[in-house]
Amino acid sequence: MSPSFVSIAWAGRPVRIEHAFVGVDDARAPLVVFLHEGLGSLAMWKDFPQQLCAAAGLRGLVYSRPGYGRSTPRAPEERWLQDFMHRQAFEVLPALLQALHITQPYALFGHSDGGSISLLHAARFGAQVSRAIVLAPHILVEDLSVASIEQARSAYEQGGLKSGLAKYHDDPDSAFWGWNGIWLDPAFRAWDIQAEIGSIRCPLLAVQGLDDVYGTLEQIRGIQRRVPHTRLLELAQCGHSPHRDQPAALIEAAKAFFSTPGSHGDTP
């Protein structure tokens, strides 16, 4: 993907957002917005968005959130708070869509933190969101998640994680410490969005790998209890990143999901 840049006003300053359009080269085509994981970026998706969009006949918008990829880094003194995913869902994504002059209905495809942001956005902006797919989303904080994020901190400080992330982020410290710091803040253990997602009305597909070390099946099953029309996809031999571990199965499921009635803002 060859990125472009657009500026939005956020957190009291101009913020540059790295983004790219993939798939069908037609502004009238059904649009899906990809939201990356807590350490992800536009580049870390690699060619998966293009593959999915080509298979399903979609136009995709892929972007790096502030603090990630080649977007404006997090300021050294900036500390993310418990509402950091809410702010991405309610402030950053709408500002980006406005800056890109996107007024049509759009679908969401979010991974991990990006999945949680997608759920929050779909709950508030239901008139614009045609449907959503969430991979390994978080709706509450589990002990398993915290333990794995603690291990990630050790890998960043003592192992090769920092050099690995430097391939995908202009400022890997911005990306890592923004995410790691808030997730390991004791106050964040109370973070829970279950009540908020109950207002989601669009078609929803929630995907979880059975070998995910960052979350259990309770995450997606909890979504289905709050949003009963949610479809679940539980993948064997799959960890935290279904688009890397089981891309073919995921693309087939997504293609079928996008082709059912109700897709892209159509009437079910």
From TrEMBL:
GO CC entries: membrane
Keyword Coiled coil listed: no
Keyword line: Hydrolase
Gene3D superfamilies named among the record's database cross-references: alpha/beta hydrolase
InterPro entries for the chain: AB_hydrolase_1, AB_hydrolase_fold, AB_hydrolase_sf
Example of a GO MF term: hydrolase activity
Domain AB hydrolase-1, chain residue ranges per copy: 32-253
Protein name in UniProt: Alpha/beta hydrolase
Native species: Rubrivivax rivuli
